[in-house]
Design a protein that fits this description.
The protein is an alpha/beta fold. It has 2 domains: about 140 residues, Cytidine Deaminase, domain 2 (3-Layer(aba) Sandwich), CATH 3.40.140; about 210 residues, Dihydrofolate Reductase, subunit A (3-Layer(aba) Sandwich), CATH 3.40.430.10. About 30% of the residues lie in helices and about 25% in strands. The strands form 3 sheets. Strands 11-10-9-8-12-6-13-16-15 form a 9-stranded mixed sheet, with helices on both faces. The protein has a 5-stranded mixed sheet with strand order 2-1-3-4-5, with helices on both faces. A two-stranded antiparallel ribbon has the order 7-14. Helix 4 links the parallel strand 4 and strand 5. It is elongated.
C-alpha cells in the first residue's frame, strides 16, 4: 500500500514537466524513511539534473538508509550530459529503490536495476506499471522505434461532422474541451495540420499556457499555398512546411525563415514520421481535416485517437465528415480501438483509445 501511495505522488511530480523533457522521459522521485517524506523533486528538461540526483542532493546525509521511489528505472549509462543515477544512489547509501517500470532504452533496459542489486540495494519494480507506462507512452514509442508517438485529435458533432458545408467549424466544442486541447498541444513536440485548415481557419496552433512551451508546427502543403501573411508563419515557434513545390515561392518562404521538407508523388506519412524521429521529435498531434485524418489512418501512423464529441447536429451530405478517404465495406475491416476511456468535459464527451 505504501509503495502505491508513494508512486502516485511520484507520477504526479513527473507530470509537472509534461511537454518539457523531450526527448527524455518524465521522471519524478521521492525519498522517504520510516514512512516519512525526506525529499521530492522531478526532472525539468534535457541537460538538467535527473529527479534521483535532485532528491539525493536535497536530502544530504538523510538519504542514507532511505527508500527511493521513482517512476522509471534509474539510468546507468554515461554517454549523455548528466552522470548515471545508479552511481549517485549507491554512493548516497540508499537501501531500497521502488520503480514504476523498467527503462525501455536499450542502453538501460534492466541494467540499472542489476547494478543497484549488485551493490546490495533491494529493488522492487512494476509498482503502478500501467500508469507509469501511460505517462511516458511517447518516450516508450520513440526510444524503441525512433519514431514519434502520434495522436489523432478530432472535434466533431454527434453526427460526425467537423464543419458545415461552408467550412465553418468555430466552435464545435465548448471552452473546457478547447482548454484540454491547448494543454494537449503543450504536451507534444509537434502539431501536424494541412493547408486546407490553414486557409480555412488561419490558426496559430499554439498552446498559450503560461510556463509551457508551444509545439513545432508542421503544415502539409503540396502546392505551397500557405499565405505569407498567415498567423502560423508570423508567430513563434518554428514552422515547417512539407511540400512538392521547389519554385520561386519556396525560395521566398525559406528566406522568411520557414524550413521546407520536399517530397514527390503521394506523401508517405510513414516516411515523414521517420524523418521527424531523426529530428528528435518524440510526439505528434494531428489537427487537420477529413483528408489528413483519413491519410494518417490509411498510412498506419496513428497510435492514439482523441475524439471530442459536441452535443450538436449539423446534418447534410455536404458537411465535412471527421474522416474522409477510404470506405470500409465490411465492419470487421474498420479501424478498431482498444483501452478505451470516455470522459465528460463540460458539455462535450471525449472518447480516447489506441489503434489495435
Amino acid at each position: 500500500m505504501e509503495n502505491a501511495l508513494m508512486m502516485k505522488k511520484v507520477l504526479k511530480l513527473a507530470a509537472k514537466a509534461s511537454g518539457m523533457t523531450s526527448p527524455n522521459p518524465m521522471v519524478g522521485a521521492v525519498l522517504a524513511k520510516n514512512g516519512k517524506l525526506i525529499a521530492e523533486d522531478y526532472h525539468r528538461k534535457p541537460g538538467t539534473p535527473h529527479a534521483e540526483a535532485l532528491v539525493i542532493q536535497k536530502a544530504g546525509e538523510k538519504a542514507k538508509g532511505a527508500t527511493l521511489y521513482v517512476n522509471l528505472e534509474p539510468c546507468c549509462h554515461t554517454d549523455k550530459r548528466t552522470p548515471p543515477c545508479t552511481k549517485a544512489i549507491i554512493n548516497a547509501g540508499i537501501k531500497k529503490v521502488v520503480t514504476g517500470m523498467k527503462d525501455p532504452n536499450p542502453k538501460v533496459a534492466g541494467k540499472g536495476i542489476e547494478e543497484l542489486e549488485n551493490a546490495g540495494i533491494k529493488v522492487v519494480s512494476g509498482i503502478l506499471k500501467e500508469k507509469a507506462e501511460k505517462l511516458n507512452e511517447a518516450y516508450i514509442k520513440y526510444i524503441t522505434t525512433r519514431k514519434p508517438f502520434v495522436i489523432l485529435k478530432v472535434a466533431m458533432t454527434l453526427d460526425g461532422k467537423i464543419a458545415t458545408p461552408e467550412g465553418e467549424s468555430k466552435w464545435i466544442t465548448g471552452e473546457k474541451a478547447r482548454e484540454k486541447v491547448r494543454r494537449l498541444r503543450s504536451s507534444v513536440d509537434a502539431i501536424i495540420t494541412a493547408i486546407g485548415t490553414v486557409k480555412a481557419d488561419n490558426p496559430r496552433l499554439t498552446a498559450r499556457i503560461k510556463g509551457k512551451k508551444d509545439p513545432l508546427r508542421i503544415i502539409i502543403d503540396p502546392a505551397l499555398e500557405t499565405p505569407l501573411d498567415s498567423r502560423i508563419l508570423n508567430a513563434p515557434p518554428e514552422t515547417i512546411i512539407i511540400t512538392e513545390d521547389t519554385g520561386n515561392k519556396a525560395k521566398k518562404i525559406e528566406e522568411a525563415g520557414v524550413k521546407l521538407i520536399h517530397y514527390t508523388g503521394r506523401l508517405d506519412l510513414k516516411w515523414l514520421m521517420e524523418k521527424l524521429g531523426k529530428m528528435d521529435i518524440t510526439s505528434v498531434l494531428i489537427e487537420g481535416g477529413s483528408s489528413l485524418n483519413s491519410h494518417a489512418l490509411e498510412d498506419g501512423i496513428v497510435d492514439k485517437v482523441m475524439f471530442f464529441i459536441a452535443p450538436k447536429i449539423i446534418g447534410g451530405k455536404d458537411s465535412f465528415p471527421a474522416v474522409g478517404g477510404k470506405v470500409f465495406r465490411k465492419l470487421p475491416e474498420a479501424h478498431q480501438l482498444k483501452d478505451i476511456t470516455i470522459k465528460r468535459i463540460g458539455e462535450d464527451i471525449l472518447i480516447e483509445g489506441y489503434l489495435k
